[in-house]
Amino acid sequence: MDERQETPDVAIGHLKKHIDILGPDVYAVQLSQNGELMSSSTNPEDDQTMSVYYPPLQDVQRPKHVNTVLRSELLELNRFGPNVDLVSYLPRGDATEQTKVAFKYYILSECLHKFWHEMNVWMRLPAHPNIVPFDRLVLDELRGRVVGFTSLYIPGGTLDQHKSRMFKLEWLQQLISVVDDLNFKYGIAHQDIATRNLLIDPKTDALMLFDFNYCGQIGGIGYGEDRNDVQGVIFTLYDIITGDTHFQDVRYSERNPADVQELEEWVQHPDVKLDHPVSEYRAVLNDWVYKRQAERQISHYKEESEYIEWPEFPQPPPEDWPCRDIKGNIVRIGQRVFLARQRRGERERGKAVVEWERPAQTKLKDRDRLLANGQFAPDN
């Protein structure tokens, strides 16, 4: 746009108006003052996309039971949100049943380390009846590097999406149990216990926890006491029963569990269904919170018998980097590690880069079968 905008939100708002009519090969757009599309560019010189670093498979140190799949073998079914898609495997041999999985990946270097922690924790957790199973590591089709992972898709939606579904007392007990196992067996804190990260498996009628995006080792990497899981369970149950979600907008450092625990009454929302009185849910919760506070504290993940560790993110090899003086003259050649480089420059250097552009879903036809790498699957 000709004039600088006050916030990035303005630009994003304008872009949303046009994004579905722009092809995957459009690198830049020119908008009028009121956000109307004036022109678009497919000139590679206008490509500002960054190409991020993906680690080689051997550097991941994956457990023996974890398998892999190529990104080009994943068939897109839906797009859940930023960097998360619903996909299935391309059929092999005589297979007729479609296995649906959630495909999570990263395309920004800012998300790299958080993604690394989530992937490593999830794939190292033993099978648990109340944790959505990790599925596979996803490799790019160029050099076989790790670009993401899949987890088993559990249909039915989250508790946040289906507030009218009856919430059973046994599901609270299962949530308490899985939190204790994560904390006291594996030394892991989930740190994002919320209705948006809880499912009910229609096959087992069991509550399932997923999304380890904020996880950390208690007392170690990624851990923050403000996001402890006990507090997460307290506010999640209050949210489920009362429908009062305003605590979701309160910073974790400013949340005080006493604000809800000390309330004389939790008023059940008229649309909420429970299989026991509210008092029984609160009694189970309060007994557990008391035991967690009085009986045992954990200060470091290595105190636990089955604690989980994983390697640090494997840095790419350093590259030569010209150091210049104030006049722009090269004074020496240094070494620098790049976690992201401009894609245009990588192409000019003859390096293969992982592409993420895909057609808008609104442009897909019923016969189109789009792969996760943006290519169309062959008809056969």
Automatic annotation (TrEMBL):
Superkingdom, natural source: Eukaryota
Name of the protein this chain belongs to: Protein kinase domain-containing protein
